[in-house]
Amino acid sequence: MYAVIETGGKQYRVSKGDVIEIERAALADEKKAAIRFERVLMVAGDKGVQVGDPVIGGAKVTGKLLDEIRGQKVMVFKKKRRKGYKRTRGHRQELMRVEIQKIQA
Question: CA 97, CA 57: separation in Å to the nearest integer?
Fold first, then answer.
């Protein structure tokens, strides 16, 4: 059984036991243990394939927060030719590592 979920403007194909890295969001409860994904776009399993329009009502995917990490550094370089203008900036995205525990359709 697998599902397609949407979080942080991206879509992920997940099944039970998968570990994914998503953008940090306020999805976790106060204990930072359980995370619920309400935007389930598709579920495939024993009953066949269910596709939402755009989401499946009543479907949930729950996961467990393993770690909060930072992604790789991305360098942003801007330049205007012949003007002496150069700027270098770096960015590191805040990420959450989540293990998928349960898919409800």
Answer: 26
Structure tokens that stand for 60 in this block? 């949930």
Give the domain ranges of the chain. Answer: 2-104
Average pLDDT of span 67-96: 96
DSSP letters spanning 90-102: EE--EEEEEEEEE
Q: Cβ(43)–Cβ(55) under 8 Å?
A: no
Q: Please say whether the beta carbons of 68 and 28 come within 8 A.
A: no
pLDDT per position as a tens digit, 47-57: 899 999 999 99
Give bridge partners of residue 35 from the DSSP assignment.
Answer: 28, 63
Q: How many CA atoms lie within 13 A of 92 on its CB side?
A: 8
Q: Taking the model in full, what pTM does it have?
A: 0.82
Contacts of 93 (CB under 8 A, 6+ apart): 23, 70, 71, 74
Tell me which DSSP letter residue 7 carries. E
State yes or no: pLDDT of 98 exceeds 90: yes
